[in-house]
Amino acid sequence: MAEEIINRVTNSKLKVIDLEDYYPKGNRVLFDIKDWLLEGLVLREKEFRAYVAAHNWEQYQDCYVALYCSTDAIVPDWAYMLIAIELETFSKLTVMGHLDQLESILYTSILSELDLSIYKDTPVIIKGCSHKPVPANALILLSQRLKPIAKSIMFGEACSSVPLYKKK
After folding, report:
1. Residue 150: is it exposed, middle or buried by C-beta count within 10 angstroms (0-12/13-18/19+)?
2. Which residues contact residue 73 at a Cβ distance below 8 angstroms, ignoring those fewer than 6 apart?
3. Crossing angle of helices 45-54/77-87, nearest 10°?
4. Nearest residue to 24 via CA among 126, 77, 103
5. Which of 3, 46, 104, 121 lies 20 to 30 Å (CA to CA) from residue 97?
6. Residue 86 within a domain
7. Rounded to two decimals, what is the model's pTM?
8. How confident is the model at residue 12 (pLDDT cuts 50, 70, 90)?
9. What is the end-to-end Cα distance of the chain in Å, rounded?
10. What is the pLDDT averaged over residues 7-13?
11. Are residues 37 and 68 in the same domain?
12. How many domains does the chain have?
């Protein structure tokens, strides 16, 4: 008769945090303003305001939007602010930067509100592999928030984790 296989990880006090579980649902949009600039380089206020006024902002309903300019144009801050004001009614969040910056800002907000008290004095593994874009910055923020709480912090999977911190 075969021996029963016992999952020691399941029976341990070890707790796994998978940041992918906190990934906010919603489309991500990278909004490039270069087409609203003269030759992609010069912002002419009157024309720029006309583009903003004529644009269909409803298409960004419940989206996360990252505003940027893909050319080397010098864009005044008010231009991004003007677009953000229009998007405010429709988007879940609008930031200036690329999609990686958007994800980092989303996770910063999520992690600042996350109750980590359930990890007090327990060994914790921060899961490494994910199918969704979990930014490295989120992993850093989480490890910093866990340090004063957790007994130990590891990274990866239970079968092959990298130790990062152990309370003395």
Report:
1. buried
2. 34, 37, 40, 41, 42, 43
3. 10
4. 103
5. 46
6. yes
7. 0.82
8. low
9. 44
10. 56
11. yes
12. 2
